[in-house]
Amino acid sequence: MTSLPLFQTGQINKLQLKNRLLVAPMTRISASECGVPGERMQKYYQRFARGGFGTIITEGIYIDDAWSQTYAFQSGLINAEQIAGWRAITESLHVAGSKVIAQIQHAGALSQGNIYRTDTVAPSAIQPKGKQLEFYHGKGPYKLPHSLEEDEIQSIITAFANTASHAVNEAGFDGVEIHGANGYLLDQFFTSYTNQRRDCWGGDIAKRLSLSLEVIRAVRQKVGPDVVVGIRISQAKVNDFEHQWSEGETGAAQVFSLLAASGVDYVHITEHQAWQPAFKNGTLSLVELARKAAPDLVLIANGAVDDADKASRVMNLGADFIAIGKSALANPDWPLRVQRGESIDKFDRDLLAPFADVKESELS
Questions:
Q1: pTM for this entry
Q2: Which residue from 113, 162, 186, 285 has the highest number of Cβ atoms inside 10 Å of its Cβ?
Q3: CB 357 within 8 A of CB 54
Q4: Catalytic residues
Q5: In terms of Cα–Cα distance, which of 189, 114, 179 is closest to 147?
């Protein structure tokens, strides 16, 4: 098994990675109430590093003391105490042989546990679909957000850039991943039915992507050319699981071409099943569409890739790296198990009940 492409060394920008396996970002609401990551989170992440993952992408980290916090007990990266907490974690993961990338996030209209504000914001004043997530301490419908003003948008762009700087220059991260997926703020701007703006941030698919592109530009300018900067994108949302881009394969090609030209080092694609056709009337997966539109773009794929056969299959479709989520929770030593030819345990959903916080069983 050690000869599989999964276990070849890799490189993103100037960052050398020992294999092609990453831990996908997963929200585990286990920081303190004021957003400080502690020993529980450190032990949780250390298991993945000891288990052979070359890189860990953290759960989403909020970026300001305004509207970005998404969930109660989510960690931030905006003050000295939060930065110190993350510094202890990154140092321990480096000692264990893993690289670590900070995923930075703004909730937008999907905020359901913000200690700084009681209201929410979005590109347009449209109430989100669905209900708040109970296993993240939410209850009932989402609030009706207010539409962001231009000065507020500029402040959010600045917050992404400043938090990226805190991550790499103070907290010891090897790079940052901008969270542009799963229905959160950047994805709200990207999605036609949540973005009804008539200014430069709304319109066709390219214009709706423009805020993500501007955040990439600002982050890159802040951290410099040699630091890894990635972005995560998706079709599905936590509150709209079956969503697909209405522009189909043509729109996907445009999106990946724009991202390839943006200065980003990688695009992290997450789908229900990474190998399945992305659109109802198509035959190509989102990974294949990305590879076709942007041959030189580094692609990380995520989505039900829970064993070595599926991971290898997705790499054959065009992914450079594989990010593993729930299967990593069940098997924090997933890379070592595969290398040794051992079986992979199935994910038990009870692990996320009644809340999705880190359990004692995950700390040994």
A1: 0.98
A2: 186
A3: no
A4: 184
A5: 189
